[in-house]
């Protein structure tokens, strides 16, 4: 008798916990396959510490192959799912296509950056959903401080030292808190930078910081931010973003080269293509995490609308706390449906509290409902993260110890460029790279970004989640508009070799790769991973955020150098130097954590 086939899609908090628990329950009696774009599980709550130089990137990643024994890992992204045939079609990291058959399917695809119809945001802002975005922000902030120190014009210096964060949920609050400490340290240790005052601005339409938390914790976080020098503006958001700054909803224009978008997340659009009942973009499931009418399909995490049995009539928020615990219940129910486990159970969980790391020894926490602040809250917060991480605990603790006694290394690694991490990418966990494989369009794949923006626009305010509250400062996928079809010149192996050679010699390439910021439309920045998912391909714009010139374009005076980004995605190359069709001239500019809201849950 053949072993049943269980397919888990996504290795976030829900997917990783599902696969690990299934492996333990089934003990080899089932074939478990995990499909994920990367070979690691990312512990999103500590991502702001990566951007601030406290933790090295690998500290927040856990190897799937090393920790999921008996689970077959397939690298790739799901294109479409044939429910009747019980088959999933995917595209691998090098453009290869494949099909995975299953007897039980667990959808845990997670979430992507939420997009709102605000002019210029898609072109000039960056999210904070994946490791590439954290690496980009770390380099970008360092570069801005260094360029500001070298600038002769006080106005230019002030603009480069101004950093705007939109969204005062978990991610945005922690990014601003850690960012202020990071930039203050860079200025303090350099005599030539004395007199420079890095300015971090935190915006949100909500009436207070951390609106999803207890008011006492919200007040604690607000007080710490203001004492540290963060300009906290509640009831205010971005009306328009430009290369030189942002226009706020109160009419003020703030000159800046940095716009970090942390307004929330939306479910991965993959589930929208299934034609099954949905609830605000999330797949409806019963309390046992099973899709009604499809007994072979289970779902949990950000993509699933799970009934909250503690609050009848409501659904569990998109947080890491719920995703992690739902993964365990889903695994037990899948095994039970195959006769490999005990009785199935409904998902029920009451929040045990939240933790928010504000940098240094400061934090806000309410474990088991007990509000804490200051050093005690910091100890509880870090202790919780160490206990919650499925690996790397010693390395993380060692980095924290070293950060407490040694100065941080504020250097640019130059690994991630602006165009590698567009805000509306369908794969925030993978950075685009030049010379990636071309993908064919698939008419049956998931819907495109136009639908994503339309869905996000239904939320009345910036920084609120699908349920009206910030369900997790996470991202949403998809980008607007089709692009010109047909092959593009300069995408062959010879061009890629020349690109790498020029980069090694320190000179700019000839325009075979572009920066998404020079485009006047978000249409021009979708990665080839989007194309692999059935989305139309588009051109790549010409100039990057913060003055970052695109490869192949002369570097204007006073702008920052271009950098390259790591990752497994692909960047499409423009057909000729200059802005692509449909773009407008001028350059453009970019923390739940696992479900941002998930980020600080305990």
Summarize this entry quickly:
Helices cover 27% and strands 17% of the residues. It is an alpha/beta fold and 602 residues long.
Write the layout of secondary structure elements.
Blueprint: E1 5-9, H1 13-26, E2 31-36, E3 40-42, H2 47-51, E4 61-63, H3 64-67, E5 71-75, E6 77-82, E7 87-91, E8 97-101, E9 104-107, E10 111-113, H4 121-124, H5 131-150, H6 154-160, E11 162-166, H7 170-188, E12 199-204, H8 215-228, E13 231-234, E14 238-241, E15 245-248, E16 253-255, E17 258-261, E18 265-267, E19 278-279, E20 282-284, E21 290-291, E22 294-299, E23 304-305, H9 320-337, E24 355-357, E25 363-365, E26 372-373, H10 374-388, H11 393-405, H12 449-457, H13 493-505, H14 528-532, H15 596-599
Parallel strand pairs: 1-2, 1-9, 2-5, 9-22, 11-12, 11-17, 12-13, 20-23
Antiparallel strand pairs: 3-4, 6-7, 7-8, 10-18, 14-15, 15-16, 19-20, 21-22, 24-25, 25-26
What do these coordinates show?
This protein has 602 residues and is of the alpha/beta class. Helix content is 27%, strand content 17%. The chain has 15 helices and 26 strands. The strands form 8 sheets. Strands 5-2-1-9-22-21 form a 6-stranded mixed β-sheet, covered by helices on one side. It is globular, with a radius of gyration of 23 Å. The C terminus is likely disordered.
Strand order, sheet with most strands: 5-2-1-9-22-21
- Low-pLDDT runs: 437-602
Number of strands: 26
Main structural class: alpha/beta
Number of helices: 15
| Whole-number mean pLDDT | 78
Tags for this model:
alpha/beta, single chain, 4-stranded parallel β-sheet, 6-stranded mixed β-sheet, 17% strand, 602 residues, globular, 15 helices
């Amino acid at each position: 008798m053949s072993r049943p086939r269980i397919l888990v899609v996504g290795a976030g908090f829900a997917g990783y916990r599902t696969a690990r628990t299934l492996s333990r329950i089934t003990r080899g009696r089932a074939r478990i396959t995990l499909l994920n774009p990367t070979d690691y599980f990312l512990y999103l709550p500590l991502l702001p510490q990566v951007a601030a130089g406290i933790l090295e990137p690998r500290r927040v990643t856990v190897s799937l192959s090393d920790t999921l024994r008996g689970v077959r890992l397939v690298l790739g992204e799901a294109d479409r799912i044939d429910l009747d045939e019980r088959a999933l079609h995917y595209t691998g990291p090098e453009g290869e296509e494949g099909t995975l058959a299953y007897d039980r399917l667990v959808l845990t695809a997670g979430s992507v950056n939420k997009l709102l119809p605000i002019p210029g945001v898609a072109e000039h802002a960056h999210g904070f959903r994946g490791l590439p975005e954290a690496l980009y922000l770390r380099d970008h902030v360092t570069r801005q401080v260094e360029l500001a120190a070298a600038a002769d014009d006080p106005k230019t210096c002030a603009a480069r030292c101004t950093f705007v964060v939109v969204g005062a949920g978990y991610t945005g609050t922690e990014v601003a808190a850690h960012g202020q400490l990071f930039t203050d340290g860079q200025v303090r240790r350099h005599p030539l930078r004395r007199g420079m005052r890095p300015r971090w601005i935190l915006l949100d339409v909500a009436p207070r910081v951390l609106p999803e938390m207890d008011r006492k914790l919200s007040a604690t976080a607000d007080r710490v931010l203001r004492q540290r020098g963060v300009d906290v503006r509640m009831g205010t958001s971005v009306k328009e973003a430009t290369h030189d700054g942002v226009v706020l909803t109160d009419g003020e224009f703030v000159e800046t080269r940095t716009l970090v978008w942390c307004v929330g997340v939306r479910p991965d659009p993959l589930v929208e293509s299934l034609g099954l009942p949905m609830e605000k973009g999330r797949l409806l499931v019963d309390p046992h995490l099973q899709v009604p009418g499809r007994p072979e399909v289970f779902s949990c995490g950000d993509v699933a609308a799970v009934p909250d049995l503690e609050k009848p009539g409501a659904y569990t928020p998109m947080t890491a706390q719920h995703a992690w615990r739902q993964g365990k219940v889903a695994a037990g129910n899948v095994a039970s449906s195959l006769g490999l486990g005990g009785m199935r159970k409904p998902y029920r969980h009451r929040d045990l509290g939240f933790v928010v790391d504000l940098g240094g020894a400061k934090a806000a926490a309410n474990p088991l409902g007990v509000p804490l602040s200051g050093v005690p809250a910091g100890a509880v917060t870090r202790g919780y993260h160490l206990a919650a991480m499925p690996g790397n605990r010693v390395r993380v603790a060692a980095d924290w110890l070293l950060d407490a006694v040694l100065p941080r290394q504020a250097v640019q690694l130059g690994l991630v460029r602006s165009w590698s991490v567009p805000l509306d990418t369908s794969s925030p966990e993978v950075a685009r790279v030049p010379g990636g494989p071309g993908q064919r369009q698939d008419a049956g794949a998931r819907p495109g970004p136009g639908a994503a923006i339309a869905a996000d626009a239904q939320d009345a305010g910036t920084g609120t989640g699908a349920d009206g509250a910030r369900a997790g400062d996470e991202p949403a996928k998809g980008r607007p508009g089709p692009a010109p079809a047909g092959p593009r010149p300069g995408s062959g192996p010879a061009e890629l070799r020349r690109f790498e050679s020029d980069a090694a010699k320190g000179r700019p390439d000839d325009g075979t790769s572009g920066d998404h910021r020079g485009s006047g439309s978000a249409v021009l920045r979708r990665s080839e991973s989007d194309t692999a998912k059935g989305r139309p391909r588009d051109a790549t714009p010409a100039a990057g955020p913060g003055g970052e010139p695109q490869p192949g374009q002369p570097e204007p005076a006073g702008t920052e150098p271009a950098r390259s980004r790591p990752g497994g995605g692909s960047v499409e190359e423009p057909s000729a130097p200059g802005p692509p069709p449909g773009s407008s001239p001028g350059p453009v500019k970019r923390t739940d954590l696992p479900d941002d809201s998930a980020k600080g849950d305990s």
